[in-house]
Design brief:
Layout (H helix, E strand, L loop, with lengths): L1 E3 L2 H12 L4 E6 L5 H13 L2 E6 L19 H10 L4 E3 L3 H4 L18 H4 L3 H16 L3 E5 L3 H13 L5 E5 L19 H6 L2 H14 L4 H14 L5 E8 L13 E9 L2 E9 L12
Parallel strand pairs: 1-4, 2-3, 2-5, 3-4, 5-6
Antiparallel strand pairs: 7-8, 8-9
Helix pairs in contact: 6-7, 9-10
The structure holds adenosine monophosphate.
């Protein structure tokens, strides 16, 4: 695996790889875990060569967020990516990504508003901008994003369609610990006690999703989930919302595939999670039914 930090070197390395087949890109902010590695595994199934990027993107952090404390573990990230068969680790520094005089922002309206967009103003502009740059730097045939960051995936899909970007966007299901908590680089911020309490997030979402599927009014199921999160120590519960799975428009009754999304803080750590909620008639028929 080549570790590359300069754009010219990246372009020539990718050009050589491209002669050997399709290129997949896996954008990350590093501190890699099994969630990221599931993206790499899916990338390998879909392309001959995998480029992974590790860039802690200052543009997507707000002024009071964790940019300076965000975990950075480049050496172990590089080992994991190499073992997984990545061809290139693209790890530019901030001055390479945003040189002196940099002045362009990509802003996706609609899907980036509400949910995380409400509490993290500018966050999705930062994400869309860096991903547009990564697309133009690497020019991948396919790019992999996790459903863990479901709104981010929707923003990238919208941007790719709107700008006619010639790349296939693939979403990969959320990878979880055995107790259900979604893997996240930010889980390292949790104390042992908070880590146990954090289980309440996937559990509350799972129970609310089931209740909605069973016909309970959406508002009621969400109120119950919020109460359970509060009881487990989450404060504040930023949002628990049911949205259309494709457009992310709010939905008040389940008639199409929907997504139940939540963000809440535990101690100083902001956790997010989401689950698919299919109307009963769209569910896979189970054995014996
Ligand atoms: P990050 O390093 O947090 O910016 O994440 C990089 C990519 O990995 C994004 O597409 C995330 O959605 C994805 N990702 C992070 N955690 C998980 C997870 N637990 N399961 C699947 N994908 C994930």
């Amino acid at each position: 695996m080549q570790l590359i930090r300069e754009i010219d070197a990246l372009r020539s390395a990718v050009a050589t790889l491209r002669e050997g087949g399709r290129i997949a890109l896996v954008p990350t902010m590093g501190a890699l875990h099994a969630g990221h590695m599931a993206l790499v595994a899916e990338a390998k199934r879909r392309a001959a060569h995998v480029v992974a990027s590790v860039f802690v993107n200052p543009a997507q952090f707000g002024p009071n967020e964790d940019l300076s404390s965000y975990p950075r573990r480049e050496a172990s990230d590089a080992r994991m990516l190499e073992e997984a068969g990545c061809a290139i680790l693209w790890a530019p520094d901030a001055a390479t990504m945003y040189p002196e005089g940099y002045a362009t922002t990509v802003s996706v309206s609609g899907v980036s508003e509400g949910l995380c967009g409400a509490s993290r103003p500018g966050h999705f502009d930062g994400v869309a901008t860096v991903v547009a740059k990564l697309f133009s730097q690497v020019r991948p045939d396919v790019v992999l994003f996790g459903e863990k960051d479901y709104q981010q995936l929707a923003v990238i899909r919208r941007m790719t369609r709107d700008l006619d970007l010639p790349v296939e966007v693939v979403g990969v299901p959320t990878q979880r610990d055995a107790d259900g908590l979604a893997l996240s680089s930010r889980n390292v911020y949790l104390s042992d006690e908070e880590r146990i309490a954090a289980r309440a997030l996937p559990r509350a979402l799972g129970e609310a999703a089931q209740a909605i599927r069973d016909g309970e009014p959406v508002e009621e199921a969400i109120a119950v989930a919020r109460r359970k999160l509060g009881a487990a120590g989450f404060d504040p519960v930023e949002y628990v919302e049911l949205r259309d799975a494709d457009t992310l428009e709010p939905v008040s009754a389940l008639s199409r595939p929907a997504r139940l999304l939540a963000a809440a803080r535990l101690g100083g750590t902001r956790l997010i999670d989401n689950l698919g909620v299919l109307p009963k008639e769209d569910e896979e028929p189970s054995l014996g039914r």
